[in-house]
Amino acid sequence: MAPLSLTQWCINLRRRKPPPLSMLPICLACVTSFLILLYMSYTFDNFFHLTKIFPADTPSLVKLPKQNDSISDVLVTFEDQNGPPITRILDKTHDHYKPGGNYASEAYLKNVLFKSHFVTNDPSEADLFFLPFSIASLRHDRKIGVSGLSDFILNYVTNIIQNYPYWNRTGGADHFYAACHSIGRVAMEKVDQVKSNAIQVVCSSSYFLTNYFAHKDVSLPQIWPRHEEPLDLASHSKRKKLAFYAGTANSPLRKAVVQTWENDSSIFVHGGRLKTPYSEQLLGSKYCLHVKGFEVNTARVGDAFYYGCVPVILADYYDLPFMDIINWKSFSVVITSSDIPNLKKILLSISPKRYSVLQANVLKVRKHFQWNNSPLDFDAFYMVMYELWLRRSTIRVMY
Ligand SMILES: *[C@@H]1O[C@H](CO)[C@@H](O)[C@H](O)[C@H]1NC(C)=O
Ligand SMILES: *[C@@H]1O[C@H](CO)[C@@H](O)[C@H](O)[C@H]1NC(C)=O
Ligand SMILES: *[C@@H]1O[C@H](CO)[C@@H](O)[C@H](O)[C@H]1NC(C)=O
């Protein structure tokens, strides 16, 4: 409402006679301070972009579209009669299944999805169609492996296009697949229709890459599921180090970070695996660096949230997860590769008050980056479903 009335007011001002000269500075001052306030409220305080859907971070007041809402019939699964048995393509789904490791997000999404009320067996009710192949399983399948991935997907998609009437209605725009491992790109090499039309729910969401489209595809957060419940997340006094980073120096950016800050007394960087528990550093630092490696994504962002550490994102062209729902400026520090030499200056220029806001928001955002076997409101599963829901009607079925 505020931006609308401001516009209105400006237009009226122009339509009428110009205001007396002495009024101008006052007007300008008013408008400027209003704009600054507006900017500040958008940049800093609005945790959610879509304040109508997420008026505040109060799950009891707002719910994501759930049962009985239009989102309830999103999917229909493909029983692939001619291809390999569906169980071979799918990850196993059972109640106590707890995916782990770096690519757990793909398995979690599917496991929870198939148990959820979003799935329908009636294609006429479906808003979206899911291609349930698991890149993570296929790459370890001895009969397929990395070298056979792209042919497998080509056959699979050709089969879908030939044998089901749904693909051709939209050219695949209402179909989606999920992949957390970047090998998904190799797998899609021979299926241009999937790359350019389908919704790709992927962890390697770099808008620098030609086969990822930020407005069409969905950035899936890479999350290494942690199970211990850390204590004292909010306490600042235990966070004695300014910043922390550890990881293999497999990219120019990582090398630059380690080389620049290796001997610093307040920033702790370590090239390679840590010998001590990561949780100690994640709980003992104010800021935790996420530095692009081979890909823009790593599980470090999810780890930072889990341990209450404010993430510093150093990954140019990373389409950050849930960016169209949550405001990353309100709980992280996003810098570019050219900022590496100024890292300490940038972090020290953030006031303690501002840090408290960032850190309090990290604790709020934490639940959006966690998977649960039985999904909880606003958790990673519902966030991804919400992203799909936002994209569901981009292309309408014409017949
Ligand atoms: C939602 O749907 C279920 C059955 O489909 C019904 O039992 C329930 O009363 C509905 N709830 C609301 C709030 O409409
Ligand atoms: C969809 O279109 C393709 C290309 O025109 C065609 O080969 C295929 O048979 C169509 N699928 C169905 C189910 O009609
Ligand atoms: C850090 O210390 C080592 C050993 O003294 C030295 O070789 C290296 O050049 C130092 N790095 C920086 C960035 O000062």
TrEMBL record:
Keywords: Glycosyltransferase, Golgi apparatus, Membrane, Signal-anchor, Transferase, Transmembrane, Transmembrane helix. InterPro entries: Exostosin, Exostosin_GT47. It is found in: Golgi apparatus membrane. It is a single-pass type II membrane protein. It holds the Pfam family Exostosin_GT47. The chain crosses the membrane at residues 21-42. It comes from the Eukaryota. GO terms for molecular function: glycosyltransferase activity. Residues 96-348 form the Exostosin GT47 domain. GO terms for cellular component: Golgi membrane. Belongs to the glycosyltransferase 47 family. This is Exostosin GT47 domain-containing protein. It comes from Chenopodium quinoa (Quinoa).
